[in-house]
Amino acid sequence: MVIAESPEGAGILREGLILAGHELAEIATPELVSNAALERARPDCVVLETESPHIDLLDRISDAMGSLQLPLVIFAHDASEEAIARAVRSGAASYVVDGLEATRVPAIMQVALTRFEMFSELRVELGQAQQKLAERKFVERAKGLLMKSRGLSEDEAYHTLRRMAMERNRRMGEVARSVIEMAELLN
């Protein structure tokens, strides 16, 4: 999906996207950006052509995307640090200043899509790591509760949690959380 402030910019982006082998879903002006427009277009990427990516425009695009995780490529004339920082904080995978030429679009799109995919993978890995860390904290706390309430050694408490997880076909972190919740309920 292309969001363009100028008809000239929209035309250049259309030509460049065709050169890159992309199918253009829709061209919209910034005023027409909405969740309905994005749902209708079902884009793989959002490309913005603007003089300067003002916060209200970026917010409108972000709101329209909702929970959709889409790469945002911005072609702008504003090279200020503030504009670039604002765009990057809004999730721009690429920010190109005064470089809107159809022949440059394919390479810029490839870089943006690759960077977006890389960051998406990192977000997933971070989420998994955070979940594992949280589960380890629950396991350690549950072991401590079992050691105190049943007089078990650390190893025995661990094996008790492990056996409970296997019997219930659940992850140890889930079982540990249940043990903690039960202990809190009984206290």
Structure description:
This protein is α/β, with parallel strands linked by helices and 187 residues long. The protein has 2 domains: 2-103, Rossmann fold (3-Layer(aba) Sandwich); 126-186, Winged helix-like DNA-binding domain superfamily/Winged helix DNA-binding domain (Arc Repressor Mutant, subunit A, Orthogonal Bundle). It contains 7 helices and 5 strands. It has helices at 7-19, 35-41, 55-65, 81-89, 105-150, 154-168, 172-186, and strands at residues 2-4, 27-28, 46-50, 72-76, 92-97. Helix 5 (105-150) packs across helix 6 (154-168) and helix 5 packs across helix 7. The N and C termini lie far apart (56 Å).
In brief, what are we looking at here?
This protein is of the alpha/beta class and 187 residues long. The protein is built from seven helices and five strands, in the order E-H-E-H-E-H-E-H-E-H-H-H.
The first-level CATH class name of the largest domain: Alpha Beta
Gyration radius, to the nearest Å?
A: 25 Å
Q: Would you count the extended β strands for me?
A: 5
CATH topology of the largest domain: Rossmann fold
Structural class: alpha/beta
CATH architecture of the largest domain: 3-Layer(aba) Sandwich
Count up the domains: 2
Q: What topology emerges from the helices and strands here?
A:
Layout: E1 2-4, H1 7-19, E2 27-28, H2 35-41, E3 46-50, H3 55-65, E4 72-76, H4 81-89, E5 92-97, H5 105-150, H6 154-168, H7 172-186
